[in-house]
Structure formats: C-alpha cells, structure tokens
Design goal:
The protein is built from 33 helices and no strands. It is mainly alpha-helical.
Length: about 575
C-alpha cells in the first residue's frame, strides 16, 4: 500500500471519475508526515480526546510505519488496538478508514471517517473524503453540503470545486455545475482533468463547439487522459462535425476496443453517415455482450431496415419492444419493414401506432415531466408521509422558478400529492387554500374534480372540470377527466372525443377509451388503443390482463394472445 507523501492521491481519483460514471477507487491521501505532525494539535483540539497513556504517539507511529512498509494486517491490528483504548482519537480513526479503503472495504471505511469528522467538523481532508463518499453513494445533497462547508474554510480548494461541480451536475443543476467548474478552472488553469470536465459539462449544456475547444486544451495539456478521445467524439458528433467525430470515436475504440460506450458512439457516427453495414457490425458486437441493450437493438433494427434485411430488422425491433414497449421509433421502422415485405396491413398498423405515440410523447414533453421534477416530487412525498406539510410547501416554493411560477401552485402540488397518497381531506384543504391565495391558479379545479369522481359525484366533478376548461380550454388533464365523466355516463362518442383529444397515456383512461371505441363499433381504433395501453402500462400484469379480457370479450383473440405474452411473470 504505502503512505508515500504523494499529494495527487485525491487527484488520481479525480482523473478517473467522470460526471456520469463515478466509481469507487483507492485514495491514499492520509499521509504519515501529516498524521504525525498534526498529532499534538489534534489531541489538544478534540474534546474528550486526551489519552492519559504517553505511548499513544508511539503506537500510532508504529501503525503508520507498518502501513508504509506494506504490512496492512499489522497496521490494522495496531490501529484497532489503539482505538479500543481511545475510541475518539481522530488520527487513528482516519488511519483506520484509509486502511479499510485500501483493503477494498470502502463502505466500512466510511464509518471511521464519519466518526473522525464529527470530532473535527472543520477537517478539510475529511470533508472532502466524506463528500466524495456521499457522491459515490448517490447522496448528492449531502455531498453538496459538505463541499460547500469545505469551501467556506478553503474558498479556492480545487478538489472541492471539482467535486461540487460534479455533484451539482448529477443533481440536475447544470447552471450551478458550469459556474462551479469555471471557478475550478480559474483556480487550476493548467489542470488537464479540470479542463476535460469543463468540456464535458459544456457539451452536456449544448455548447458543443465550446466543449471541443476546452477538450482540445485538455488534450494539449495531457493527451493520455482517460476517455478524452471519447469526449471529443461526443462533442464533435453533437456539433455535427462528423469528420472529426469519426476520427475521435475511431481512436476511442482503438484505445478501448471493448468499451461499449465507445463502440456505441462510433456506431452512431456511422449511422449519421449512412454506413449501415459498418454500424450494424458495431451494434452486433455490443449486443454480443449485452443482448438486451435497448439503444443497440433500435440501431440494429434501423440498419437492417436500410439494407433491406427486413426480417432481421423485425426480429431486432420486436426484441426491443418486449423490453421497452414505449420505443416510438421502433414502430416507424417496423412500418417500413412490413411495407418492404409487402404486408401493407401490418405496415399501416405500425404507422398508426407510431403516429399515436408520437402525439402523446409531444404532449408529455410539453407537460414538463422532467427528471428534476420527479426528484422534487419524491422528496415532497417523503415529507408529507412524515407529516411535514410546511416543509413540502417550502420545497415547492423554493423549486418554483421562472415566469410561470405562481403563488398558489405549491398548494396545488401538495394537494395533488395528498390526493395520490389517498388522503382526500388534506388534499381538499390544500387545493381550496390554493384558490384562496390565487383564484385563477391552474389545476386546483381539476384535482377537486378528481376528488369528486372518487366519491362518485359526477355532477360536482363535471362542474370543476368545466371551470378549469373555461380558463384553459386545452388543459389536457381536465379534458381527459371530463372524458372519464362522459364514459361513466355511458356517452361513448363524447367520451372518445374527450379522451382522444387529451392524448392521455394514463392506462386507466386508455382502457376507457378502448372500451368506448368497441361500444361504438370502431374496432381498429380500439385495437390501436389496446396496444397503447399495453405499452404505457410498462408490463403491469393487472393492467395488461384487464385489456386482454376486454379484447377477448370483443372477439379480438389474436391481439389478446399477443398482448398476453407481454405480461410480466
């Protein structure tokens, strides 16, 4: 192992850790000279840590010496013995953590590190170390707080800035990530790994030309950096500099011929330049390692279609749809495959599915269902589950940003969460409070209408939905829920009109739409809707069985058998 005084122990990790590909690695950064020099200070500074035994320094020195000479077993035994006598001795806790980590026992190492941090909450080495541990473990918020604390103590700490940028990026805050990595560049303008990460972040933000510029600076500073050609290939590809993308992605594959990401990048470049057979070979190589790789199955299906290997394309795309029924492009390629085989009925069927799913995808995108919003909703749900309603409201208030944020919106969102959690009284209270704060607030009437629907009060529900639509005639949730009212009333044509206009992807509403089509005798539309329902149910056994039963009741046995195969065991 060795405790050589090599300051780049932390940097060694940093060079190997990308913003989207964190891996736990060894960090030999607790150095013998630092431990011994800081021993007296630590003993005086830490409350409750004043060992009466005058041999404590010698015992720690022996443990460090054993570690330095590669005898990790003896070093660990000496450290454990020292901590048995002095369990709150910070330097020994730090040494124990490092030894555990170097032995590949990272999760165990975090325990003594965190104990040491409690004793010395301003220890910058420990703040960095535990911050990295939380980042690797996925606890991004905790990592951010630790790095921010460290930067209050050492405002120009390059490592803290680097990892803080990484944490912001992984937490979905690209603007803060970019601002932080720019500060890191100012602190360490010649650090190649920092330049590389700046380029990666610029690429993720859409500034592909800027990304290439900084990645080339990193390459000039250190051409041996891991994944640098891959990063340049990605930025060049996204910036549509395809000749450069070919050069860099080819080099990335040469350097790492079994790297699936590099192979996928080169395949994507080949597809963009219509080199279908070359791309197909690359996709097949990826699939030989991971036969269920969704993007490679889609890419292979596309390539086989372009070279008129229609059945091979159909096989790949059907495999893909068994894994992910919501892959819209797969239906477009299948439509062209069946057209190439002369099967115009199936070609039209797949074209209709593609069209319907495309409409719903654009609707979902406009609704703003982002990964960041999902994270916020899950946090708010957890707060409400613990009866911290005020904190949940504050979370939504803090998260609201931009010109579309309104005063009543946080109460609407909390009300909606209560509704989905099965707590109608709390839901109604918050929704009415939202209307008091902001009478024209969007969504409150719709959720109150859903509450009325749950209680079977169709008249009240319709009134709420109509009030919502009087302000916003295209509010899709209200349109869809009004469709449910019409369905429950047995007004099939009106139900179809509202539900289809809403472009809903909610399985329960798609079931109503499918049934209404059958009752109107529109079998082809019903079949398409049944397939949409199965796709958006994501393999839910109960949901798919329900639509299979509906199909069988309407003599659509062939489609029913096909959808039955999609039921998750």
């Amino acid at each position: 192992m060795g405790l050589s005084p090599n300051k780049d122990g932390v940097r060694e990790v940093r060079y190997r850790m990308g913003f989207a590909r964190i891996s736990q690695t060894k960090q030999s950064w607790l150095l013998m000279p630092v431990l011994l020099a800081g021993l007296g200070v630590t003993l005086r500074a830490q409350t409750g840590v004043r060992p009466a035994d005058p041999t404590v320094t010698e015992e720690l020195h022996d443990a460090v010496s054993a570690a330095e000479h590669g005898d990790e077993t003896r070093a660990m035994a000496l450290t454990d013995a020292l901590l048995d006598k002095h369990p709150e001795f910070g330097p020994a806790l730090k040494l124990q953590g490092m030894l555990l980590e170097d032995l590949g026992r990272g999760p165990e190492a975090a325990i003594p590190y965190q104990k040491a941090l409690k004793l010395s909450p301003n220890d910058t080495e420990l703040l960095l170390k535990i911050g990295i541990y939380h980042l690797v473990s996925g606890n991004k918020e905790q990592a951010i707080q630790l790095f921010l604390h460290l930067l209050k103590i050492k405002p120009k700490d390059g490592d803290a800035l680097y990892y803080l940028a990484q944490a912001y990026y992984l937490n979905g805050n690209n603007s803060l990530a970019l601002a932080t990595i720019r500060e890191c560049v100012k602190v360490e303008p010649d650090n190649a790994s920092v330049l590389q990460k700046y380029g990666e972040l610029l690429c993720s933000s859409g500034d592909n030309d800027g990304a290439v510029q900084w990645l080339l600076k990193a390459k000039h500073a250190d051409p041996t950096l891991d994944r640098l050609d891959f990063d340049l290939g990605v930025a060049s590809y996204k910036g549509m500099h395809l000749d450069d993308a070919v050069t860099y992605s080819t080099k990335a594959v040469e350097l790492q011929p079994n790297n699936l990401n590099a192979l996928a990048l080169l395949a994507a470049v080949d597809v963009k330049q219509s080199r279908w057979q070359d791309a197909a070979l690359l996709f097949q190589k990826i699939l030989s390692v991971n036969s269920d790789d969704v993007s490679s199955l889609l890419g292979l299906g596309h390539c086989e279609m372009e070279v008129k290997n229609y059945q091979a394309s159909i096989d790949a795309l059907n495999h893909l749809l068994r894994l992910d029924p919501t892959q819209i492009l797969a239906h477009f390629y299948l439509s062209r495959d069946y057209m190439g085989l002369g099967n115009m009925t199936e070609a039209q069927h797949e074209a209709d599915l593609h069209s319907q799913m495309l409409e719903r995808a654009s609707s979902a995108a406009s609704a703003g269902d982002t990964a960041h919003e999902k994270i916020v909703w899950e946090k708010a749900r957890a707060l409400l589950s613990e009866n911290h309603e005020a904190d949940a409201l504050q979370l939504f208030k803090t998260d609201s940003r931009g010109p579309n944020a309104t005063a009543g919106e946080p109460c609407v969102l909390v009300g909606a969460l209560y509704l989905y959690m099965g707590r109608p009284m709390e839901a109604a209270r918050n929704l009415k409070r939202a209307q008091e704060i902001e009478p024209s607030v969007r969504g409150a009437h719709t959720y109150l209408g859903i509450l009325a629907l749950q209680e079977g009060d169709l008249n009240t529900a319709e009134g709420e939905f109509q009030r919502e639509l009087s302000r916003d005639p295209n509010y899709q949730m209200a349109v869809a829920e009004l469709g449910e009212v019409r369905y429950r009333e047995g007004r099939w044509a009106d139900a179809v009109n509202q539900l289809s206009r809403s472009r809903t992807v909610e399985p329960s509403l798609l079931y109503m739409l499918c049934d209404a089509y059958f009752r109107l005798g529109k079998v082809r539309d019903a079949d398409i809707t049944a397939e949409l329902l199965a796709a958006y149910s994501k393999g839910n056994r109960e949901v798919i069985q329900g639509v299979v039963d509906l199909l069988n009741r309407n003599q659509q046995t062939k489609l029913a058998q096909s959808l039955s195969a999609k039921i998750t065991p």
